[in-house]
Amino acid sequence: MPNKKYKIAVIQLNLNDIAENNLKKCLSWVRDAANQGAEVISLPELYSSHYFCQSEDVDNFALAEPLYSTSFIAFSALAKELGVVIIVPFFEKRMAGIYHNSAYIIDTDGSEAGLYRKMHIPDDPHFYEKFYFTPGDLGFKTIPTKKGKVGTLICWDQWYPEAARLTALQGAEVLFYPTAIGWHPQEKEQYGENQHGAWMSVMKGHAVANGVYVAAANRIGLEQYLPDTAGIQFWGSSFIAGPQGEILAQASHDKEEILIAEVDLDLQENVRQNWPFFRDRRIDAFGDITKRAID
Question: Any idea where the CN hydrolase domain is (predicted)?
Answer without folding.
Answer: 6-265
